[in-house]
Amino acid sequence: MKTSLRLLILVAVTVLAADQVTKYLAVSRLTNALDGREGLARVTGYFTEQNLDNHPLPEDGKFTVTRPYRFIEDYWHFRYVENPGAAWGMFASLPEGARRIFFHVVSVVALGFIFTMYRRTEPDQRMVRVALALITGGALGNFMDRLLRGYVIDFIDWHWRNQPGMRWPTFNVADAAICVGVAFMLLDSLKVRRPDPVPASLAESPNP
Known about the structure:
By secondary structure, this protein is mainly α. It is 51% helix and 9% strand. The protein has helices spanning 2-30, 40-48, 96-119, 126-148, 173-190, 200-203, and strands spanning 69-72, 76-83, 152-158.
């Protein structure tokens, strides 16, 4: 069990770190929220600034979001978005106090459920363990956002030539890890399970 828990911790912490680092880069490169800060102050600013609209900068009067960075023109942009709801913006219209409590409770329950599932896996279910670890890291990444800010930072914008209905909802590394984890679990569920071999002593015993 200790070895399996090390896998869970290693993968989950790696996803959490990658998620927060890329969100920091999104805030620093796609907004002016950290302008005027240097070194460690930029990092602390990332964790302490709560909302671009509600915390004005003295020199500007207001934080602003820059134009999207076109990584692959017409297909893949980096665009800063604050998502107070769930996937596809669900529950974003709930009052802020109720929304925060709702997502905090849901996140804690979900993490507890995932951990329970992980402990019940068998040693040969390596893909399932990796999948659950990825989901755990992704859930922790978005949960940290909600604890610090009350919303989730999204910045990966996939679309097809800006055609209506051909844009995937903006997402982040945590969301990607969750999706990959779910895909791994689906792939594992499609694997053909071979029956356990019959012990030789039973196979060779004569029929009564």
